[in-house]
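Pilot study result, target chain (126 residues):
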Amino acid sequence: MLDQANSTHVLLVEDEELISTMVAEELRDRGFAVQEVGTGEEALRHLQSGAPVDIIFTDVNLPGSIDGGELAKRARAMRPELPIVYASGRYAEFGLKGMVARSLFVPKPYSPAEVCTLIERLSEKG
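Predicted structure:
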């Protein structure tokens, strides 16, 4: 049984269920505790609940009124040091102007293994 208390907690925000499932399974296989949500609103509720979150991995394009960029801004207002990793197939449109400071961007399509390696590196810095 995975020791959730000592794991790095990843908040995975992805509205495409297949992608979310594949990334979450890979992360869990590598020892991460993962909370999957499909919207920015759900992600904010999770953060506001006080649940442990060490890293946010979010798609940029999400349904609802809070996209990945807005989620990151609000998450950083609550937790200024929280690492953010964005994913999108449209970096040229989102680009650096939409990203909060000290965040990373992963272009789609990506492999779950690539994402997990990046998150492992981020979790080692903390």
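One observation from the pilot: The domain at 4-125 is CATH 3.40.50.2300 (Rossmann fold). A full batch analysis is planned for the follow-on phase.
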